[in-house]
Amino acid sequence: MIKSKRMYVVNQLLSVLPNSGCQTFKTRLLRWAGVKVGNNIEVFQGVKIQGVGEVEIGDKAFIGHEALLMVNEGSKIRIEEEAIVSSRTMIITGFHEVTPTEKRILSREGTTSCITVGNGCCVLAGSIVLPGVNIGEMAIVAAGSVVTKDVEPYTMVAGAPAVFKKKLKND
Fold first, then answer.
1. Cα gap 37→108, rounded to integer Å
2. I want to staple 58 with a disulfide (CB 3.0 to 4.6 A). Which of 20, 37, 38, 92 is the partner?
C-alpha cells in the first residue's frame, strides 16, 4: 500500500534525480513509500506515482521519463519482470461512471480495477492504459495507443482505442 505523504516526497525527488544514475537510491525511495520493487529496475526522471493503492515493479523493469501511475485505493498496478513502460505513458486504475440524468455528467463515486503489464512487454511512449486491462507477456502497445481491453501475449496493438495489429510469435 502506497504511503501518500512519503510518495509525495519521492515524486519530488524523482523529478530532479538524473535519468541514468541513482537507481539503487530510487529503488530505496520507492520501497520507503510502500512500492514493492524488484531488483535492478530503472526509473527515469519525472516518474510519478499517485494514489493509495498497491504498486509492484518486477525485476529489471523500466519506467521512462514522466510516466504516470495513478493507483486508487483497493486497486493494484503490477509491472512484471523485464517490462517497459515508456516515456509519458499513463496507467490509470480508476474511473467514474457516466451519469447523463444527474446534475453532473460524471458520477462523484468512482470505481477502480487492477492493471497488469506482463513480463517482457513494452508499452511505448504516450500510451494510456485504462482500468482493468491486462497486457500479456511480450506484447507491444504502439506509441500513443489507448488500451481499453486486454492485450494477448505476443501481439502488437495500436490506435485509439488500441486494436490488434499483428502476432509477434508463431505458435
1. 33
2. 38
The H or E element spanning position 49 is strand 48-51
- Measured between alpha carbons, how far is 22 from 70 in angstroms, rounded to an integer? 23
In terms of Cβ atoms closer than 10 Å to its own Cβ (0-12, 13-18, 19+), residue 102 is exposed
Measured CA angle at 92 (ends 99, 39), to 5 deg: 165
Exactly one of 96, 107, 163, 168 is catalytic; name it: 96
- Residue indicated by cell numbers 523493469: 61
37 in Cβ contact with 30 (< 8 Å): yes
Residue 65 annotated in active site: no
Which pTM value belongs to this model? 0.93
Q: Are 10 and 33 in contact (CB under 8 A)?
A: yes
